[in-house]
Write a structure and sequence with these properties.
Oligomer: single chain
CATH superfamily of the largest domain: P-loop containing nucleotide triphosphate hydrolases
Distance between the termini: 32 Å
Strand content: 15-25%
Number of helices: 16
Order of helices and strands: EHEHEHEHEHEHEHHHEEHEHEHEHEHHH
Number of domains: 2
CATH class of the largest domain: Alpha Beta
Strand order of the largest sheet: 8-9-7-10-6-11-12-13
Shape: elongated
CATH architecture of the largest domain: 3-Layer(aba) Sandwich
Structural class: alpha/beta
Radius of gyration: 23 Å
Helix content: 25-40%
């Protein structure tokens, strides 16, 4: 599991109500310790920005509108309780410092005088995030659009791994959530019961809400009635994934095709993101859009890998064309086998139970092998190829 927001052990920093002068002091102080954004945002958009960005640290200017700073701190504390808040000012004022501490700021620094204190506080925040994450490998499966097979692939990847590893398959598709139905289990305990208590979730509490499938895969499912899920945020999802990372070797996340500000933490902490598409123009076009969305959410390009599902013998788009246009390696090509897949889904069984030697099962097995070997998941040489086909025009925007 990757430490969220710290791809190189440097802290990621959000800036709120920081003017140009303070920004320059911050840049000089943290040039080697942190990843800084290009600019700051105001209090009016600060909460939404930080919840979406999920940095390790938020530096908040408190010299100007102090009442706005206080209101902001109270709101962000509710939305992102794990975020480190540091108040930044040009001068010391005992009353302002006391107020800042009361509303949740962990540090109060005056710049440029307290540059060393700022570096220390930011470094501690980065270390805390790294220490809090578990050792599990997180593989998040994302669909270019609905119906491309993320749930089927997630379940079968988990089942292949469960023979020799402790594996959790987690359903984070809050729009559909079909894992329980696919695995033919009655999900009496679900993620709906965990989310309201996410800040307190530990390995033991998590285990009380998982089911153990006959394949030895542990399942954390969505409820049948999705309306049972109350309001939650990215921190809640992170806490559940983090608790799982303490007790499992692999976490396979079915994120569906709707990556949003509440569940995108599952792609940002993932060691591998499998972007699933089918070999048709609409699906691949949507894969291009999803790929760009993943990059904009801070996912490293090298962690995104393409899987082409339902590949016919004579596809309209070949794997090489898809690779060249999306700029990512196709690590798996799963053949079209609608008859066997439909049989397995309708009988509530895994494909390997019914057809252990089918090519679709063997290809999923090969994909499992790649997940344990980073060298084979390196970016394809196809990323540097130029395509002059008509398909290149589809992905130029």
């Amino acid at each position: 599991m990757r430490a969220e927001g710290t791809p190189n052990s440097n802290a990621s920093v959000g800036l709120v109500a920081i003017d140009d002068e303070l920004f320059e002091h911050i840049r000089q102080a943290l040039s080697a310790e942190a990843v800084l954004p290009a600019s700051a945002v105001g209090f009016d958009e600060g909460v939404d920005h930080l919840v979406r960005m999920m940095p390790n640290v938020a530096l908040v200017g408190i010299d100007g509108d102090q009442s706005a700073a206080v209101a902001f701190a109270k709101e962000i504390r509710m939305e992102a309780p794990g975020l480190t808040l540091i108040a930044v000012a040009r001068s010391r004022d005992a009353d302002i410092i006391l107020t800042a501490m009361r509303v949740g700021f962990e540090e109060f620094v005056v710049l440029p005088d307290d540059a060393d204190q700022l570096r220390s506080a930011v470094g501690k925040a980065a270390s805390r995030n790294l220490q809090d994450t578990g050792n599990a490998m997180v593989v998040t499966v994302v669909g270019s659009k609905g119906g491309v097979g993320t749930t089927l692939l997630s379940a079968h990847l988990a089942a292949e791994l469960a023979g020799i590893h402790r594996v959790l398959c987690m359903d984070l598709d809050f729009a559909k959530g079909d894992l329980a139905a696919l695995m033919d289990v009655n999900a009496s305990e679900t993620i709906a019961e965990l989310l309201p208590r996410a800040a307190q979730v530990d390995e033991r509490m998590l285990s009380g809400h998982t089911l153990v499938h006959g394949s030895k895969v542990h399942l954390l499912c969505q409820p049948d009635d999705l309306d049972r899920i109350e309001d939650f945020n990215a921190d809640d999802v992170f806490n559940i994934i983090n608790a799982a990372a303490q007790g499992y070797q692999y976490i396979i996340v079915d994120a569906g095709s709707d990556i949003n500000d509440r569940n995108d933490v599952s792609v940002r902490v993932a060691d591998h993101v499998l972007l699933v598409t089918t070999p048709d123009v609409v699906s691949v076009r949507d894969a291009h859009r999803t790929f760009k969305s993943l990059l904009s959410r801070g996912v490293d390009r090298q962690h995104i890998h393409l899987v082409v599902n339902r590949m016919p013998r004579q596809p309209y788009l070949t794997a090489e064309q898809i690779e060249a246009n999306l700029g990512a390696k196709v690590v798996g090509i799963i053949p079209d086998d609608i008859r066997r897949v439909d049989q397995a889904v309708n009988e509530g069984k895994l494909l390997r139970e019914l057809h252990p030697r089918a090519e679709v099962v063997l290809e999923i097995g090969r994909l499992v092998g790649l997940l344990s070997d980073d060298a084979d998941l390196s970016e394809s040489a196809a990323t540097s190829r130029k395509s002059n086909s008509i398909f290149s025009r589809l992905f130029s925007n």
